[in-house]
Amino acid sequence: MAEIWTMGEALVEIMRTDVNMPLNATDLFRGPFPSGSSAIMASTVARMGHSAGIISGVGKDEFGECILNRLKQDGVDISKVLWTQMVLLPVHLYLTMIKETADFYSIGMKHLQQRQKCRM
Question: What single DSSP character describes residue 120?
């Protein structure tokens, strides 16, 4: 049993490779990066040598797998993470503009799937 537990969201971040590149311009993205305050805290605690666990839920998809792989790699107990098709994993898109602040958009997977279907 882990000595430190956290409970909360796990998500992925995808960001532009260049500053000042809006979403409507064709260019490259970096990611996905496992993220979410609870997941970051659990990973940090585990990398500092303490036993840590997380109580959360992730989608049974590539993004959920990305998060679980990172948490396991860092030594986090993921036995209390629900891995299911019922969870819509948030995806955060970060855009860094010249004003030196990061704008972000939170998009649920269901929304992305609907948008993808419209493009086909």
Answer: -
